[in-house]
Amino acid sequence: MRIKKFRAKSMIDALRKVKSELGEEAVILDSGKIRENGEEFYEVVAAVEERGEELKLGMAEEDPYRFAPWEELKRELCEIKSVLRELRREGKEYFWQLRSKGIPEGVAREIMGYNGTIQDYIRERIRAKGVSPPSRIQIFIGEGGVGKTTGLFKVAFQLRHLRKKAVTVLSLDNYKVGAREEAQKLAQLLEIPLVVGDLEDLGRFLSLLESQDFLLVDTPSLGKRFTPQELAEIYKLNPSIRFNWVVRATDDGEANLALWEELKGLPIDALFLSFVDRKIKGSKLYWILQKDLPPVAFISRGERIPEDLEIAGEESLLRILLRGFEEEIIPKRGDL
Fold first, then answer.
1. pTM over 0.85, yes/no
2. Bigger pLDDT: 75 or 46?
């Protein structure tokens, strides 16, 4: 029996190390996050049973006090082997196969207990989330580089020019260099009314709703300078405020779920999925199926406005999530 710890910056990388060094037969004994020297790592404890291995006691017969500890160790190793065999019988190896694809733990456990195909599971989760009706005050939030501003203007164009609604965009991003200039350029190009201000002025700008159907608000990127706590203060200004969380399809799902733990107390109505045109496996996006997350409302496939914006539907999300393993079937428990 060979047992070893592996560390990496992401769970996927840690599992890849396990597979590379211990092979396909390796079984995960434990996993979790650790912090060392101010850095955060994922740690996985894995084991593999080596054929023909024997425990060599290597002790002197005349020393009776050395025998008991070695015997105890031998017994514990036998118990570990028994646990590994039981894990295989229960199908836990399939669970770690799902995890190695980048599927979050909660979703992987749901899949393990689901009696059907990947397609059926995805459809059921999408339908369960439903569709959130658009609020008149939509505040777009997200980390830097996710395409938040571009995504907001895509939605504004659709509302104003395709649905013939009165829309104003409010740009409050006074942190990012060039953010206001970018907003002004897009507003002029797309013929969308724009108001530029500071976060402190938001309460005053809400009066614009008296003459508008929708007010779309662009905010600074989430980070050390602009935090979820500040979003909570913004929500207090008006109970009609709702947030659209813009996330990049190429980002690490575990990192997004960690951010979600900070955001989930806010009234986030929908996800806006950007950079879907990039080449990624669908399993990388299974985190969006987690039960407590809001539904995906929009999908952005590129930079063109408005051509690359798509209202998310069951079929479009299914195609995205099946990239890479359309033929894979979730086995029934009895088949594992």
1. no
2. 46
- Contact of 208 with 216, CB cutoff 8 Å: no
Tens digit of each residue's pLDDT (9 = 90 or more) over 176-198: 778 889 999 999 999 999 999 98
Judge whether residue 243 has pLDDT over 80.
yes
Asked if residues 194 and 183 have their Cβ atoms less than 8 Å apart, the reply is: yes
Bridge partners of 33, per DSSP, are 42
pLDDT, mean of residues 92-118: 83
Count CB atoms within 10 A of the CB of residue 282.
22
Percent of the chain at pLDDT above 90? 44
Name the residue type at position 278: R
Q: What angle do CA 281, 141, 125 make, to 5 degrees?
A: 45
Is the bond into 306 cis (omega within 30 degrees of 0)? yes
Contact 27, 50 (CB under 8 A): no
Could you tell me which of 74, 217, 110, 210 has the C-alpha nearest to residue 156? Answer: 217
For 123-321, CATH gives: 3.40.50.300
Angle between helix axes 92-100 and 64-90 (nearest 10 degrees) is 80
CATH 3.40.50.300 domain range(s) in the chain? 123-321
CA distance 53 to 55: 7
The alpha-helical segments, DSSP class H, found in 41-91 are 64-90
